[in-house]
Amino acid sequence: MAHTHSSPTCLRFEDLTLGYGPHPAVHGLSGTVQHGDLLAIIGPNGSGKSTLLKGIVGSLSPMAGTCVHTDGCRVAYLPQQADIDKSFPATVFDLVKLGLWPKRGLLGRMTRSDRESIAKALAAVGLDRFEKRTIDTLSGGQLQRALFARVLLQDADLILLDEPFNAIDTKTVDDLVRVIEQWHAENRSVIAVMHDLDLVRDHFPQTMLLSREPIAWGPTDEVLQADNLLKARRFHAAWDDDAPWCADHDHTHAHDHGQAA
Amino acid sequence: MDFHAFLVAPFADYAFMQRALLGGLLIAVSAGPIGVFLMLRRMSLTGDAMAHAILPGAALGFLIFGLDLIPMTLGGLIAGALVAAGAGLVARLTVQKEDAAMAAFYLISLALGVMIVSLRGSSVDLMHVLFGSVLALTQESLLMIAGIAAVSLTTLAIIWRALVAECLDPGFLRSVSGWGPVVHFAFLALVVLNLVAGFQALGTLLSVGLMILPAAAARFWVRRVLSLCLLAIGIGAGSVLIGLLISFHAAIASGPAVILAAGAVYFASLLIAPRGLVRVHLPSKRHKVA
User: Fold this and answer.
1) What ipTM was reported for this prediction?
2) Chain B contact for A250, CB < 8 A?
3) Predicted TM-score (pTM) of this structure
4) B230 reaches A (C-beta below 8 A)
């Protein structure tokens, strides 16, 4: 499906600071994501990658600055650990069907074409003939495939994936990367938190290197330079209670977040 | 004793038995699906906590107006809603989890209730509030139970999709809509409503039995949510019928008889159902290659 938008910008950060208590986990991020961008977010553990995604979906409010997406932009979010109750008596079909929510809502009837799109989504992630399997019998990789199928159904303009390939075998990674590239071809924006730099090099045109502060953000080749990676490696995630209060930007928001040294 | 004298005559000959049967069946139909969702959300004990929580409201109505249905029901409804909303809000606004907040609120509520009943003095009254009497159902209380059943089933049908989503993947529901908290509180309201419907017949303590036991028994037989709800309704209805008959013929208290009948179904299911003890632990001799 071709997505057309009046503005090329999908997402805009302005001096965005996100965190917990007085401590920022993402600090002073500015920039824009364009429609159709395929962006990898990399950085050491605790460098604010997941926090940034939470800020984009809106489950975490900014401590300072703003994060806005364009009006009518539909967002799909696949968290690092989906809080799925695997003991709930649901089939793969039931789980994937949730992806119709943006389209059908609370009371909208499911049509025959909805069933077809569910079948198509399952086929696209390599789970055909899994419809009736109960979710408690799925392996980690199969569950991740099902969750990708659900994202497919959400038909979102902006897709956020938090470490989608953790503990996933190479065959599954290959299949799911193909799904991501399909989204990219359909001009959807995809932002994925990644750890495997080879995957990033091969498949993601844009990369953001984060270690609380953005270290680099741009074309993947330029970001994955040795000096940038070294800077990120020196990052220390611990909070510093004696860190001074941050006052290095001049906006009108209250400066009530500490800056770890 | 022949079939007719055992099964039909008690209901054909006595109006109070007819009302008891109708009231019990309505409660079974209404409370069964609620119990299924309580169980699936791992909130089975919340039903029990809420059953205690409605006591002070019912007792206050009783203290002021005597043994009158409307004030006791309204009182119970208000007390239950306060405890459910209080616990839910504490869980959402503070670090405390809902189970701990719920326990704190219902214990306070229960103590208040017992104190209020004791102000009146007689322990017979307390027994009535705690254990009810299905055989004393009036036309008025039947109407109320029918109304509550209608409201409960309708509401459940409306919020079904969101409730399933909230059980299965609450984080996902949060990411696509704001229905999560709405559905949670609506569901707690239904729990309170059903307990209040049952307390005239079964008392505050036992009314939770027709909610949880059929659901817990059904879990051993079927897998799908809708099947669970239907089977729970069936088990609840069967327990009402059997319990009332035993209570009639053996001249024992009706409320406990109904709940014990449901308990017997639970134990039988635990043993012989496809997902019960025996079949799950029987060594299987054959397996497929894929």
Assistant:
1) 0.85
2) no
3) 0.87
4) no
